Amino acid sequence: MAGDQKAKGKVEQAKGKAKEAAGRTVGNERMEAEGRMEGARGDARQAKEKAKDTFKH
């Protein structure tokens, strides 16, 4: 289950970066902001899973 959450975090980070870059390319500030938000959500999920792993061991 933890691996699944880590994978979701990586996917969110990648989607966020792609959406942010696309928004920047076409000049769409809303899309760019959504991409940053999605990337941050992925970062938070990764951090949470790392913390859980730290306390397991």
Automatic annotation (TrEMBL):
Q: Where is the CsbD-like domain?
A: 6-57
Q: Which InterPro entries match?
A: CsbD (IPR008462), YjbJ_sf (IPR036629)
> Annotated region Disordered: where?
1-57
Q: One Pfam family for this entry, by name?
A: CsbD
Top-rank lineage group of the source organism: Bacteria
**Family per similarity comment:** Belongs to the UPF0337 (CsbD) family.
Q: State what protein this is by name.
A: CsbD family protein
